[in-house]
Amino acid sequence: MSRPTTPPGPTRPDSLGAPDMTDDASVAAFARTLDEAARSSATTGLLTADVPDLTLDAAYRVQRAGIARRLARGETVIGAKMGFTSRAKMAQMGIDDVIWGLLTDAMQVEDGATLDTSALIHPRIEPEIAFLIGEPLSGRVSPAAAVRAVAGIAVAYEVIDSRYADFRFTLPDVVADNASACAFGIGPWHAPDRVAGENLGMVMEVDGRTVATGSSAAILGNPVRSLAAAARLAEGAGSPLRPGDIVLAGAATAAVPLTPGAHVRVVAAELGRVEVTTR
Ligand code: 0L1
Ligand code: MG
Question: Options 3.90.850.10, 3.40.50.300, 3.40.50.11030, 3.40.640.10; which CATH number does 76-278 get?
Fold first, then answer.
């Protein structure tokens, strides 16, 4: 995956009197607003309140500009997260395709470690399946071909934390906000032959109580389909997935609020568990 330092893309003229969202200065300003919201633990207004016709392309440029700010602070992109990978969430948003955000090393929490939630806005946690990329992966590939590029599969969790009030947003807003990416943890990697487990039972526990149960099949019917979608989005972004990159394929259940002082354990059949404690 390439490491953008400036947002690429053409400049387009204003439309309907809206601010020219697509010039580099506007993209940078929106990225700064979202970044500062995250860093000050405060929500911000929807970008589409200012620019109702914000395009998905422009939103991805804002996303990349936000990542560029993280890179300037010394972070490194280590993969991608897929969003809206359940049919229910797609229907809720009125969309028929997945989105993605980028993961940086600063977002990764070691398995079993403590996550400080005091600087987060309104975090939620969800059980996920993660892939470790073994071969460069990009383009329109079949799920079977995508699997051939995989070096490992693991149970994972993702902490999402929208920079918008009440997790309410339109599609371009959430894309610009890096698909609500915040933090994640990965359990032990397993050999990719476990990838065949398209219907793995998954359980998320908080303080020993089950708060969500589901199946990896909730992720587009099979998480490898999400991986193939990541390859397509990687090509579109001109950022192939590289060996060592992590892809969070999506959530197996709805996300639940994450509070301080909680111990969360996510278990997936065949893949074991991953844990996090919050303070
Ligand atoms: O990881 C996800 O599926 C979340 C994508 C962004 C939407 C949200 O914040 O719920
Ligand atoms: Mg997720």
Answer: 3.90.850.10
